[in-house]
């Protein structure tokens, strides 16, 4: 009986932690966010390696409108070790209103995680994204390559925010 109660408490604790929308003090979502301009295809240029993308190349994210007001998310990447494409379908919803780059995203039913756009250029060509506690990090671009000034800006910003960049990788976008 105690084991069952313990399991339920741990499961609920993990669920609530995964759904947290409280942001680290230096993670500030962009304001004046325009979802319509953010929609479309993005190439993953850099990321802090994570278990669900480990070893993936040619990673893209495609965002489109959902009929319920949310955003459809389709992430795609190539797993060279298995010589196959991996696709993950998800959905995202705004947390603090549609004018802020703070969303919650789910790929697994009712479990949501934070998606925070903390840097975005005026032309919606480059986006810096993290979660609530800076465990995850992505540099996204509308093109498979970026100019050096964007890379420098990204590195300066994440270093100033004390991201743990030990596992930062630059994603190979060249076709196999």
Can you describe what's shown?
Helices cover 19% and strands 39% of the residues. It is of the alpha+beta class. It has one domain (2-170): Lipocalin (Beta Barrel). It has an eight-stranded antiparallel beta barrel. The longest helix is centred in the first third of the chain and has 17 residues, at 2-18. 24% of the residues are buried.
In short:
The chain is of the alpha+beta class and 176 residues long.
Q: How are the SSEs ordered, and which strands pair?
A:
Elements: H1 2-18, H2 35-38, E1 40-48, E2 56-65, E3 71-79, E4 84-94, E5 102-108, E6 111-120, E7 126-130, E8 137-141, H3 148-160, E9 168-170
Antiparallel strand pairs: 1-2, 1-8, 1-9, 2-3, 3-4, 4-5, 5-6, 6-7, 7-8
Strand order of the largest sheet: 1-2-3-4-5-6-7-8
CATH domain topology:
Lipocalin
CATH level-four homologous superfamily name: Calycin beta-barrel core domain
Mean pLDDT: 89
Q: Count up the helices.
A: 3
CATH architecture: Beta Barrel
List key phrases describing it.
9 strands, 8-stranded antiparallel barrel, disordered N terminus, single chain, alpha+beta, Lipocalin, globular, 176 residues
């Amino acid at each position: 009986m105690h084991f069952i109660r313990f399991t339920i408490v741990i499961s609920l604790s993990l669920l609530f932690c995964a759904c947290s929308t409280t942001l680290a003090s230096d993670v500030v979502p962009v304001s004046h966010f325009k979802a319509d301009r953010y929609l479309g295809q993005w190439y993953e240029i850099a990321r802090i390696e994570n278990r669900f993308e480990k070893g993936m190349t040619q990673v893209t994210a495609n965002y489109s409108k959902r009929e319920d007001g949310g955003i459809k998310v389709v992430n795609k990447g190539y797993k060279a070790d298995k010589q196959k494409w991996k696709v993950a379908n998800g959905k995202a919803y705004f947390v603090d209103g549609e004018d802020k780059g703070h969303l919650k995203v789910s790929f697994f039913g009712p479990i949501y995680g934070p998606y925070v756009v903390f840097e975005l250029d005026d032309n919606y060509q480059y986006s810096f994204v993290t979660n609530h506690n800076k465990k995850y990090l992505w540099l996204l671009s509308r093109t498979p390559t970026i100019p050096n000034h964007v890379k420098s800006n990204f590195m300066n910003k994440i270093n100033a925010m004390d991201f743990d960049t030990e596992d930062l990788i630059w994603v190979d976008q060249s076709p196999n």
